[in-house]
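RECORD TYPE: protein structure
NAME: RNA polymerase sigma factor
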Amino acid sequence: MTDVHAATTRAHREQWARVVAALTRRFGDLDIAEEAAAEAFATAVERWPVDGVPPNPGAWLTTTANRKAIDRIRRESKRDDKQREARMLQDDDPPEPTGAIDDDRLRLIFTCCHPALALEARVALTLRLVGGLTVAEIARAFLVRETAMEQRITRAKAKIKATRIPYRVPAAEDLPLRVSGVLATLYLVFNEGYLATGSGSDPVREELTDEAIRLTRLIRALLPRDGEVTGLLALMLLTDARRTARISADGELVALAEQDRGGWDRALIAEGHHLVRERLATGEAPGRYQILAAINAVHTDARDVRDTDWSQVVALYDQLIRLDPSPIVALNRAIAVAELDGPDVALAVVDRLDGALANYHAYHATRADLLRRLGRSSLARAAYDRAIELAGNTAETAYLTRRRDQLNRTL
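PREDICTED:
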């Protein structure tokens, strides 16, 4: 039974986006696609423990979801819709033009990231339908309430249906209007895979990081001269290169300073560095992802944490904060400032972010570390407690708990 449960969980992670994308292509309706996919997975939970896991779980799920969708259409169709229904249920109709790249999930991303939708709605909808993230996980990524996120996703799907947004990779001249939302989405999918937010999730979801990288490579093939596409790919590669060193054998998060750098993937680092240098050679002003990639290039260039060029990291964050003056960027800059100018200077910056990041676990974790370094143990312990309360990932919780308990033993 445990093996069947694991197979079902793995199938959901690996096949959700494929099933939703295939149904969207066939039926042209996101609600039908998502609901039929959910019903197919619910059926798998009931049937697989009895019948066994099918040899090809993806094909089984797609076939079942197609049947569920057809059943729904037949139930809901009115008499004057019979002709439309008949056309929809035909498998041999000529497919709609799909664009330069024949990839169902990439087309689904571009459908969800239409400029008619607000940017946050584009990202949230794509995380749900393509990334397979739960509404709760997406709400945590946006730091908003789950009910508000549910409403945002529902409105976005309704607008796509009402305005008949097509399911295809747009023409070349339309790509620039879409790409910002697509990149933002893929970055969040990657981040959810690199360190999952769900309390019941594995700390690392490789299927999400791998898929985000694969799709970003496809977009780079569409837009090879777009600096931000290249920058995002470089950022993902340089971050993913550290994946195996970030979680200990005991399932605990390993901070950057404590990671075994010999375990980093040097091939991914070399490719990421090449892409960063390629963008620098153009002389063009870098965007957000290019600067983040450059920051990661500095970190991965250091063979030991003591070799890190913190002045360069802070200078890059200064450049980034002019483009993206968000509280999270300010928090990450403060972490670098602590290494360059000391924890007291950084803490003054962090404390000013309390209003914006009061419910963000990384804010409290950062503040706890700075207070610990300043010898303010009681305040550090309280900050660790709040970070543990807010952290959703088991690996982060284990790390923060150990740091807090170490602190307690010194009191």
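COMMENT: The longest helix spans residues 2-27.
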